[in-house]
Design goal:
The N and C termini lie far apart (about 50 Å). By secondary structure, the protein is mostly helical. Helix 1 packs parallel to helix 3, helix 3 crosses helix 4 and helix 4 crosses helix 5. The chain contains 6 helices and no strands. The protein has one domain. The protein is elongated. About 80% of the residues lie in helices and about 0% in strands. InterPro entries: SSU_processome_comp_20, UTP20_C. This is UTP20 protein.
């Protein structure tokens, strides 16, 4: 898709690409700023190359305006999601409690895995999964 966006940008040219610039930059910006554990470095490099191509094609000023608008929009979405998560904690405390328990359980498992990798002789005790108990409501 990134290659397609680059090809369309070059094909349309400077004058006709400007209205579509924020739409094209949105996925590229998302890929550049993502911090996934299993991120593909080739995608990041490709998005950086296409951004450089767009910068040369439309000029630094037009590109900067479009890029800053995409950045602002992404930051607003991020803030909105954070606000909704905080509101949900107040509105639905049971869901928030389940999410918190799950997060703590995952944290404990990660800690045990880390101990096992650092000290292979020492075996951390693992919590036996009782499927029905895990599904029960927290009281």
């Amino acid at each position: 898709i990134f290659k397609f966006l680059g090809a369309i940008s070059v094909d349309l040219g400077k004058d006709r690409i400007e209205p579509y610039l924020p739409t094209i930059l949105t996925p590229l910006y998302r890929e550049l700023n993502s911090n996934y554990a299993e991120q593909d470095p080739t995608l990041k490099n490709l998005s950086q190359e296409i951004i450089e191509l767009l910068k040369k094609l439309v000029g630094l000023e037009v590109f900067s305006l479009a890029f800053s608008s995409v950045q602002k929009q992404a930051n607003q979405k991020r803030a909105m999601r954070k606000k909704q998560r905080a509101l949900q904690t107040v509105a639905n405390p049971d869901i928030a409690a389940r999410r918190k328990l799950k997060r703590h359980k995952n944290k404990a498992e990660t800690r045990k895995r880390k101990i096992e990798s650092l000290r292979p002789v020492h075996k951390a005790k693992r919590h036996r999964s009782h499927a029905l108990k895990d599904l029960a409501m927290v009281q």
